[in-house]
């Protein structure tokens, strides 16, 4: 409950006007860049695909025209080495009560393996581990007294209190970092495979999004060695998960309720077995970030950082022949174009004390890989990065009366954000779909883990034309139909004013920080505060 209080106070204190002011940035220029970046000529901007070279050339040209200083290892390009796992063949057979059903990849199951060669399961037993979250502080350990070695572990989506109606210690409805440790826990306990049962509510995306991406290769940063491999991992379509629980004597809804309790222990599902053969190949690949700097007037004053991921899902042979390009107009053509417009505004204005870094990341869709690589190999020290802003993505809604803050109650910067937004006629509202865990799913998180403060926000839902109901309908439609799909394509009738509003607030707040001498902080209760404290001496 305490996490919401600061935002509720500042929202009440900074109620914006009913008619927001015209944005500082140009919606027309943002729209033109989104149109270019999402054209078929860019082949969906897939990292390591032909569209990467075209995208990089365009972004380099724009950075050069703005006079940004190159800050990569080869001009503006920062090399990001990658490992790439490609699923070559796959077969899955699920046995329920002696009856065997073939599970079709991309239909009933989405799965892969990072063991090079063939991974085989031969009628492996299945253990249901509830939410699969181990949290000793709260007494949760569904593996206690349960042997999952060599077996298939199946877990629910989310964490124990996502649907409990109360906070059990994981943050209530909001997704917690613990929800991202399930695969590691299964591996630690010796499981041969791990599957999550898909559920749209906590996941925030429909089964279609997973099914259509089933054959997409998996990536990781190449740090010189191949990390220890886990066997088969993936997601089961909801009805398949419900059926295997039923065979094991469990009702899906009742199993959710039972798994909310700290004393829940894993259950071996009698009469349920899985057989599989998955053949995987591994190779090395290279992608690139684009990084430029607008130097400040005081080299010792530090910097601020603006970032957005340029990558989308590319052009794929496994998509239907009628349209094999996932253009990524919204995700994240809008964020990339907005960073370009913010950079233009900074370049056209007098220089400030602090340097401003502009970075366009690769492989966000592969696991925040470009941003993570940069965070480990920054152009300017992160210890003296005063703040970071992430633009990802802007669902095209037109002009709004609000901005949605992702991750509430983390930093005093939220109060500055509310003040700057109010000056532009906008109010700050908390994110609605906290169960989706957006805070952990975009590039700013790589920098939060390094201790760099920031605020991640995007256009809200309260449309000047249509109100909140219309905004919610459009966002829900995009998430259900176009998120990571081929229909995420540019529309000539788009109104990019909302993106310009979002970018204008990020620009104005960034100018304040870049012109000043103060160092934004985290709230004391944030785990990122301890990481930031390690570099306190650099900011004295």
Automatic annotation (TrEMBL):
<feature type="domain" description="Peptidase M28">
    <location>
        <begin position="289"/>
        <end position="501"/>
    </location>
</feature>
<dbReference type="GO" id="GO:0004177">
    <property type="term" value="F:aminopeptidase activity"/>
</dbReference>
<keyword id="KW-0645">Protease</keyword>
<dbReference type="InterPro" id="IPR046450">
    <property type="entry name" value="PA_dom_sf"/>
</dbReference>
<keyword id="KW-0732">Signal</keyword>
<dbReference type="GO" id="GO:0008235">
    <property type="term" value="F:metalloexopeptidase activity"/>
</dbReference>
<dbReference type="GO" id="GO:0046872">
    <property type="term" value="F:metal ion binding"/>
</dbReference>
<dbReference type="InterPro" id="IPR045175">
    <property type="entry name" value="M28_fam"/>
</dbReference>
<dbReference type="Pfam" id="PF04389">
    <property type="entry name" value="Peptidase_M28"/>
</dbReference>
<keyword id="KW-0862">Zinc</keyword>
<protein>
    <submittedName>
        <fullName>Peptidase M28</fullName>
    </submittedName>
</protein>
<dbReference type="InterPro" id="IPR007484">
    <property type="entry name" value="Peptidase_M28"/>
</dbReference>
<keyword id="KW-0378">Hydrolase</keyword>
<dbReference type="GO" id="GO:0006508">
    <property type="term" value="P:proteolysis"/>
</dbReference>
<feature type="signal peptide">
    <location>
        <begin position="1"/>
        <end position="18"/>
    </location>
</feature>
<keyword id="KW-0479">Metal-binding</keyword>
<keyword id="KW-0031">Aminopeptidase</keyword>
């Amino acid at each position: 409950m305490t996490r919401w209080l600061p935002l509720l106070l500042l929202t009440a204190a900074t109620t914006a006007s009913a008619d927001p002011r015209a944005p500082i940035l140009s919606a027309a220029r943002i729209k033109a860049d989104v149109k270019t970046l999402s054209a078929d000529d860019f082949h969906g901007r897939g990292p390591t695909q032909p569209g990467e070279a075209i995208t990089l050339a365009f972004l380099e040209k724009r950075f050069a025209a703005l006079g940004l200083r190159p800050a990569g290892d080869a001009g503006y390009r920062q090399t990001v080495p990658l490992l790439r796992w490609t699923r070559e063949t796959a077969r899955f057979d699920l046995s329920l009560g002696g009856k065997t059903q073939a599970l079709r990849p991309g239909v009933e199951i989405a799965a892969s393996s990072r063991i090079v060669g063939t991974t085989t399961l031969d009628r492996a037993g299945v253990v249901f581990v509830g939410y699969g979250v181990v949290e000793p502080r709260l007494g949760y350990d569904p593996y206690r007294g349960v042997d999952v070695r060599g077996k298939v572990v199946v877990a629910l989506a989310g964490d124990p209190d996502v649907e409990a109606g109360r906070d059990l210690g994981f943050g209530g409805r909001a997704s917690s970092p613990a929800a991202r440790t399930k695969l590691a826990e299964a591996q630690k306990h010796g499981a041969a495979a791990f599957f999550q049962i898909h559920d749209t509510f906590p996941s925030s995306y429909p089964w279609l999004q997973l099914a259509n991406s089933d054959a997409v290769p998996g990536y990781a940063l190449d740090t010189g060695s191949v990390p220890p491999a886990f066997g088969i991992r993936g997601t089961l379509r909801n009805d398949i998960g419900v059926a295997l629980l039923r065979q094991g004597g469990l009702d899906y809804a009742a199993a959710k309720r039972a798994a909310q309790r700290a004393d829940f222990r894993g259950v071996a599902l009698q009469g349920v077995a899985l057989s599989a053969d998955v053949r995987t190949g591994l190779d090395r690949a290279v992608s690139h970030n684009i990084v430029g700097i607008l130097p400040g007037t005081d080299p010792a004053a530090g910097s601020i950082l603006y970032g957005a991921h340029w990558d989308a899902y590319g052009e794929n042979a496994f998509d239907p022949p009628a349209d094999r390009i996932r253009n990524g107009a919204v995700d994240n053509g809008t964020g990339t174009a907005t960073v370009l417009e913010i950079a233009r505004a900074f370049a056209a204005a007098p220089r400030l004390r602090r340097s401003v870094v502009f970075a366009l990341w690769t492989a966000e869709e592969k696991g925040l890989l470009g941003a993570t690589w940069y965070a480990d190999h920054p152009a300017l020290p992160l210890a003296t990065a005063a703040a970071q802003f992430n633009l990802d993505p802007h669902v095209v809604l037109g002009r709004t009366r609000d901005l949605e803050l992702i991750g509430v109650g983390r930093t005093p910067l939220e109060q500055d954000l509310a003040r700057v937004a109010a000056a532009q006629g906008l109010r700050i509202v908390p994110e609605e779909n906290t169960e989706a865990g957006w805070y952990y799913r975009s590039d700013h998180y790589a920098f939060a883990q390094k201790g760099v403060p920031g605020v991640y926000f995007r256009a809200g839902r309260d449309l000047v034309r249509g109100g909140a109901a219309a905004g919610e309908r459009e966002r829900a439609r995009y998430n259900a139909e176009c998120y990571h799909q081929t229909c995420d394509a540019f529309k000539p009738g788009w109104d990019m004013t909302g993106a310009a509003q979002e970018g204008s607030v990020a620009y104005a707040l960034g100018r304040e920080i870049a012109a000043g001498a103060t160092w934004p902080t985290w709230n004391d209760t944030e785990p990122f505060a301890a990481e930031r404290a390690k570099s306190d001496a650099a900011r004295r």
